[in-house]
Amino acid sequence: MHLSTTRLATGVLLASVGATLAKTSYNLQVSYDKTNFFESFDFLNGEDPTHGFVDYVDQATAQQAGLIGVGQSNGSIYMGVDHTTVNPPNGRQSVRITSKDSFTRGLFIADIAHMPGSICGVWPAYWMFGPDWPSSGEIDIIEGVNTQTQNAVTLHTSSGCEMSNVGTLPSTMFESPNCGSESATSGCQQRTSSNQNYGDGFNDIKGGVYATEWTSDHIAIWFFPRSQIPQDIASGKPNPKSWSHPLARFVGGLGCHIDSHFTKNNIVFDTTFCGDWAGNPAVWGSNAECSAKSSSCKDYVSNNPADFKDAYWEVNSVKVYQQGESYGSPDQGNTSTSQPAPNPTPTSTSIRVSPTSAQRISQVTGIKYSTQYVPPSRVAPPNQVASPSQVAPTQARGTDLGSFNPAGSYVPQPWKA
């Protein structure tokens, strides 16, 4: 009797542990890759909210101009810029794409083989933002300007959000804990020290994986070089608790209730030129290499198209995982939403891209790109919410500010997964 009772209790305990693990482990919700990438994103066709010298074009124009493509051999996604036109009247052509799905919390695994290089005048970003900026938050995962070689990770929120950086890689510099829009630094930024996680250095090692974990407790970003991608990511069973220190970690708590400041974020890739950050006269003038090329960012970008041949994204996939027992389990508070297509226009089964355009992309990347695409389910981009104007980063103010104690001061703490 005692033995049977013990076995029963053990069985119940194991079942309970198994259920807990099932609920807390990450399950794949959606994968954006060669099978669905461009149909899963909307193209901004209009003015750049950050006032760049850029002409964002729609999907059809981008395809015809050879600005986008899908690798025939490896299935990678190409998003480039015009690098042949001198003096483009409306700015240099590029793309800014926003996912149709929005997400609240989750684990976002972006496998990126190439990003725009460390080039004067270029301002690339891989980021997320929600509606009614800044009320729903913004997460800048990869961002930099001009000849920058190290990534800067930044959060933007509405007022009343101060984060700590407990658990961040010790070499990462914390610029400011205040993420609110009222902050003089326009967000809380962590500036990294590696020369392999951004721009030319990133491309030299064939890129890698950026992993972003967004929970109610923290927003953490890891970067894994191509040769060091964890097996759990490669096998499709990511486990952040087994990883080392994140490149940047923003911790909520008494200073900031993350769930109150971040919700329904969309995924964005873009490459702009000049604008409020890269083209800021003070930023441009302080860069010896760029200012030696031209007195202004706009003049340089306008007259040197060939210099932007390397300003392209090559993305293998972006995978979104959610915690819970099933796809997008709402009872776990992990959600994704997608707006319904507004009266979709009937189209053929593919959109043709001229062989010349495909050849142009192949000349840049060395990869053969397809001349056919499955069309998007929506033919026009939605109204875009303006992203904030960016400012030049401030001087580093210290490292590892730690976590908030009840008195409101910071307490440095070691990383705990």
Helices and strands in order, then pairings?
Elements: H1 2-24, E1 26-32, E2 41-43, E3 54-56, H2 59-65, E4 68-70, E5 77-79, E6 92-94, E7 96-104, E8 106-114, E9 122-129, E10 138-143, E11 152-156, E12 173-174, E13 188-191, H3 199-204, E14 208-214, E15 218-225, H4 231-234, E16 248-251, H5 258-261, E17 265-273, H6 275-278, H7 281-286, H8 288-293, H9 297-303, E18 313-323, E19 335-338, E20 351-352, H10 355-365, E21 372-373, E22 403-404, E23 410-411
Parallel strand pairs: 3-6
Antiparallel strand pairs: 1-18, 2-7, 4-5, 5-18, 7-17, 7-19, 8-14, 8-18, 9-10, 9-17, 10-11, 11-13, 12-13, 14-15, 15-16, 20-21, 22-23
Total number of β-strand segments?
A: 23
CATH architecture verdict: Sandwich
| Strand proportion | 25-35%
Question: What is the overall silhouette?
Answer: globular
* Annotation field: number of helices: 10
Overall pLDDT, averaged?
A: 81
Rounded Rg: 22 Å
In terms of per-residue confidence, which ranges show pLDDT below 50 for 5 or more consecutive residues?
Answer: 1-22, 325-333, 339-354, 370-417
By secondary-structure content and strand pairing, the structural class works out as alpha+beta
Just give the CATH class: Mainly Beta
Distance from N terminus to C terminus (CA atoms, Å) equals 41 Å
CATH topology: Jelly Rolls
Biggest sheet character: 9 strands, antiparallel
Total discrete domains: 1
- The proportion of residues forming helix, as a percent range, comes to 10-25%
Enzyme class: hydrolase
Biased composition (Polar residues): 384-397
Family: Belongs to the glycosyl hydrolase 16 family.
EC number: 3.2.1.6
